[in-house]
Design goal:
elongated, 3 helices, mainly alpha
Length: 71
Amino acid sequence: HGATNFLLRYDVEPGPLAGAVSRKFLGVSLQCAECHDHPHAAWKQQDFWGLAAHFARLRKMTPVNAEEGEN
């Protein structure tokens, strides 16, 4: 499934996901605003972490009994 693969590609981590989503879907680079306000644009660090908060509740499921295919 494409959406699942996208989330797993970034290890379901809010910071990397926010950077990837902003770059691939919004067409802007917010990645440098992770640590500081963007030097050449109006993006602030608060904007980056606001987007990252959207992904903060995501969790990667781990199988309980992987040998038998149980989750």
